[in-house]
Structures are given as structure tokens and as C-alpha cells.
Amino acid sequence: MNKKSKDHETPRIGEFHEEEGKEIWIFIAIGLGLIIFLSILLDRLFEGVPLGFIIPVLNEPATVTSILYHISIFVVGIYVGYMGLKEFIVERRFSVEFLMSVAALGALYLDFLFEGATVLLLYSLSEYFEDYIEDRARKTVEKLSKYMPDQARIVEDGSEKTVHVKDVKPGTTILVKPGERIPLDGIVIDGSSYVDQSLVTGESIPVFKKSGDMVYAGTLNTNGVLRINVTKVAEETLVSRIVKLVLESRERKASIEKLIDKFARVYVPIVVSLAAFTAIVMPKITGSFEIWFYRSLILLVVSCPSAFVVSVPATMFTAITALARKGVIIKGGVYIEKMVRVKTVVFDKTGTLTLGKLELVEIHTFNGYNEKQALMYAAALEQYSNHPVAEAIVNKALEEGLELRSFEVREVREIAGKGIVGFVNGTRVIVGNRELMKEYGFDLETLNKIPERHARIIISINNTIIATFCVKDVVRENAIEAIKTLKMYGIRTVMLTGDKTEVAEEIAKKLGISEFYGDLLPEDKLKIVDELRAKDGLVAMVGDGVNDAPALAASDVGIAMGGAGVDVALESADIVLVKDELAQIPYIYKLSGKAVKIAKQNIIVSLGTKIILGALGFLGLIPLWFAVAAGDDGVTLLLILNAIRISRVKI
User: Fold this and answer.
1) Which of 35, 118, 284, 581 has its CA 20 to 30 A from that of 234?
2) Out of 3.40.50.300, 3.40.50.2300, 3.30.460.30, 3.40.1110.10, which CATH number does the structure's domain 355-474 have?
3) What are the residue numbers of the active site?
């Protein structure tokens, strides 16, 4: 029932505070509860013994009970009303504080002292518990900021110095010892260690980090000393940007949230007008002012829109924070609502369904050479290249335990797009494609005897072909399961790639994707996404956030793999998979469906309750305190508790 509109600024390191005022409400609630209990007890013991003077306002005998009630209702009612009046002046709308204070003070005027105090007690308890419940939904964001170190140990001229993280610039070398949290994003330049990244990515198992690996602020260095080259200032770290995106997500409302906002702007004035009619016109018709004024107070309470205004945004934000705990950043409730209606999920291949990392999987030898000899000569030469194919060959040689340093390699020349040439132990070695072999005099007849396979690499020694290598892109570990689960949910899956069609076919078959397109340029991917949208409805596009930018932008929901380029992904996509786990996509779909379902449940329950209680209140069949307990505070708490069920969704 937190009806106040609050603008959130991005919290800086160590500056994330709990919502102000929560302690005030529990203090007021405890005070009112004690007064009500004491007043009831005094009435039972002394039956309202007068104190010998008259209360001027009501012109009635004063008792301890009546004095306690009058003071508590008047003081708290004025305090709550003041807050509501400020909101009315600023936002030109009736806030729940204003309506509650009118109801309580009106009850005081009618001498319904118990009900007036109970209205304020229920309201105060509701404020406290709703803040408490919403705090649970914000724990993910708070936790991210809470564990961010304020200090960093920098290394300059061989000496260490501790400074504030805000004073550390990119390019600075920092030292992180075992048991310390990494203060800033950066790249490991020396040392190795297992790093607990659960705070940022949700991974339960520490990840091994070595020289050249990226590390993130807020993660825990467990067992080794790391020297890190800082790449981001404190305000631009991954954690800071995630905090900002999660908070900003509340501004990107789903259509169901916008509809509720519009409805509330119409609903409240209508019911308030009905309450005014009940208080002013009905007494003139029936001649009973106190009865109809009391019933108008019930209508005022029923007019409070908090139950349906708060429950839907609370549902969406609970879903967003639940996803954040899983390493999924979603930029607003609008994308949760869209995910439920997605009919097709389109995947880019390289870097999405596959790791974008080549692996040597086959070696065929000729002319009396064996696999070990072919691999030694090729790897000895390829170790001087940065090409992905070269990396795959060298990695395979290292896995086989081959020692490459013992070779004398000279006159290395890399030919872009074709291969590499050089001398290994005085022998000329060529590693490359058919075009390169043609340039070095190999006839077509010899080359045509070699089976055509994708990414085929040919190795020759002294003008003799000794082997061919086959390298393949590695499929992501959880890609097959993700595709299978999406199909189970009735979602169509499509793969797009710039690779050759035969490559696309092999990967698609392995993943269980029946529809795929190869040999595509970026504009071709965009065209296919548009065609799928026109044919089937909403489309989600999953890519790396860089090469697939046009298609991601054209899709209804753009989902980016964050691992390869978190910065770009955070900016370009609607949803970011920080851990690059494709299994999270079915989870997003399932959780989004649950969130929208709960949001609709909350709307139906809240509006139904309001209508029923409004009718009963107008007929005088329910008391004021019951209207507050059941129609506003109680139902709001119930609906927020219902929203918390979202966090229990499992994949």
C-alpha cells in the first residue's frame, strides 16, 4: 500500500538506504495498539467513569478512554492528513493518506472513537508490513550495493597504497588478496584464483580466473592473489549499471500497469463524488445525517485505489528482482508482458548457440604421416598467429602434451583469409585453405581428392600434403536443453547465421532446431525477423548484442548474451543474460507467464472486493474498520503476498 510516488536515483557505492519512514509507522502502530487495548480495558474495569469535566469539541463528559482516543486520533490523523494534503497539492489527486485521515477524523467527529483509532492502526500496520514486504523484493539490488568495497589497494612503482574506489582511474593496477572482494571491474594481469561471482551472476560455484580474464566489482577472491588492470570507474562497473537498470525498470511499465493507472485516475474521483453525495444529499432525503455521513466515510475508504494500483507494479518488480537473482537483467515490466506473448524465439548461431570458439575435432593424414606429426608441424607454426583456427590447433597440441618450444620456427608469414606459411626446423610448412594451396602450386586434381568439409584446413610439408584438419564451433552446454524446453512450451525456434548453410544444418540438427537460415548478412537477419513477426506474432531475438544489433532492435524482445560484451549488451538489449545461460530463456518465459497471471488475479480480486464492500457500506451492512481491514489495507497486503509467489517459480 505504498502509494507515494518516489523517484529513485541510482545509488552510489555504499549509499543504498532503506525507505525512510518505515520505523515511524511501526512506532505509531504500536502506540495506537496500546491505546486501543488500554481504552478497552479501562472501559471494562470502570465502565467509562467520567473525570468531572466536559470535552468542549463534542460537549460530552470526559473519561480516560475518550481522552486517549481523542488525542491519538487527532494527532495521528492530522499527521497522516498533512502527508496526504501535500500529495494532493503536488500531484492533484486524492492519496490514501488524505482519504484515511478524513475517515478517521470523521469517525472522531461522530464519536466512533474505537473505529477511528482502528482505521489509523490498520493503516499504520499496513504501511509498515508493505514496506517490509517490498524490501524483500529489493534485496537483490541492496545486496549488490552493500557488498561493494569502498577502498582499493593500488600498486604504484612497486609499492601499495589504499585509496577510495572513486579515486581509481582506468588503467590503474590494483591488488586483491584472498578473502577480499574485487573493488572494480578489470582484467587479471597476474596471478590466478577462484572467484565467487554469485553476487553478480548468480553462479553457485566459484569460477577460475587467470591472466587475461575479466573480473567484476563485488565478486569475492577466494584463494589467490590477483593483480588487476582496472577498466571501469566505480560508477560504470557492471554492478553499478545493473543496480541502475533494475531501478529504472520500474519506469518501463507494462500496458496492464498503465491501464490500472488510468483506471485509478477515473475510479477515485467517482467514488469520492459518491461519498460526497452520500454525506450531503442523502441526509436531506432521509433526515439522518450521522448515518449517511458514517456511510460516506466507508465509501471514502473504499475509494482508496492502493490495492490495485500497488499490486500490479509490485508483481512486476518482484519478477524483475527474481530474474536479477538468476543473472538476468530485464529492463521493465513491459518486456515481462511481451515475453508471455512471444510465439517465436530466433537465435543467432555464433556466440549464442555456440561458444564462438573453434575446436579441432578431426585429423586425416596422408603420405605416411601420422596425426601427431601433422599436429606438431601445424601447431609449431600456428602458435605465432592470433587467428581462431590457429588457437584451436595450438590448444589441441597442448592437450596432447606436445612441446612446441623445441621447434625452430622462422620466416613466418600470415596471409589474411587464406592461412600461414613458414619454416619449421628448416622445412617449409603451409597451413591454409584450398586457395592458398593453389597459390603454392598444388593442382586441382590433388585438392579435389580431399572431401569437402566445412572449415577444412590443409597442411603441407615441402610441397606434400600430409593432413587435413576439421575445426568446429563448440555448442553451448545448455543450448540443447533450452531449445527442448521452449518447444515443450509451444514456442517456435529458429536459427540464423552468416555461416554456410551446411554448417548451419549440422548445428541445427545437433540442437534439434528444424528451421534455420545460413549465408546471411545482418540485413538478411533483419528481414527474416520482420517476416516472422508478420506471420506468427511477437518474436524474441537472442544474440550477442553486437553483430546482431539490427535484428535485436527489430524484434519485440531483444535478448543479449552478456558474457562476450556486457557493456554493449546492457545498452542494446531489452533483456541481458549476464551468465550467457540459454536455459534462462525458458525460465524467463515461465516466470513472465506467472507474473502476468498473478497481476490479473490481483486486479480481479481488488476491484471485486472494492465493489462488494462499496455496496455493503452504502447499505450500512459493514462497519468502517472492516472496510479498512478488508477493502484496503488487508486486501493490499494479501495481493502483495500473492505477488511474492513469483519468486518460487522454478525452471
Assistant:
1) 581
2) 3.40.1110.10
3) 348
